[in-house]
Amino acid sequence: MDWDKVLVNIGNHFDLASSIFVAPRKGIYSFSFHVVKVYNRQTIQVSLMQNGYPVISAFAGDQDVTREAASNGVLLLMEREDKVHLKLERGNLMGGWKYSTFSGFLVFPL
C-alpha cells in the first residue's frame, strides 16, 4: 500500500517511498491499521506482512455500504532489520491519510 503522508517517524525507520517499516532493534512492537473501502459491491482485505508473510488481516465486505472500515492490531516479536508493511490483497481503498492509517512503535526492547 502506498501512503501519502507521514505524521510521526522518529528515527526514520518507516520509508514512505516503499511503505516499509524496518525494525531498528530486537523487541516487541505494536502495529495497528485502519482502512476504508471506497465502493459498494466489493470486499477489501488488507494484511499486515512481516518479512513477506501475512500475520493478521482485516476484511470489510458489506455489499450495500459505500464506505466501510476494517481495523486490526497486533504485538509482534521482531528481530533487528525485520520488515513490516501492509498489503492490499483485494479491493480499493479511499485515498488520503485521513481515511486509512498505519501505526507502529516499539513497546519493549529485548
UniProtKB/TrEMBL annotation:
Primary localisation category: secreted
Domain of life: Eukaryota
C1q domain location: 1-110
The entry's keywords: Secreted, Signal
This protein's GO CC annotations: extracellular region; synapse
Classification via SMART domains: C1Q
UniProt xrefs under Pfam families: C1q
Subcellular location per the Swiss-Prot or TrEMBL entry: Secreted
GO BP, sorted A to Z: maintenance of synapse structure
The protein, known as: C1q domain-containing protein
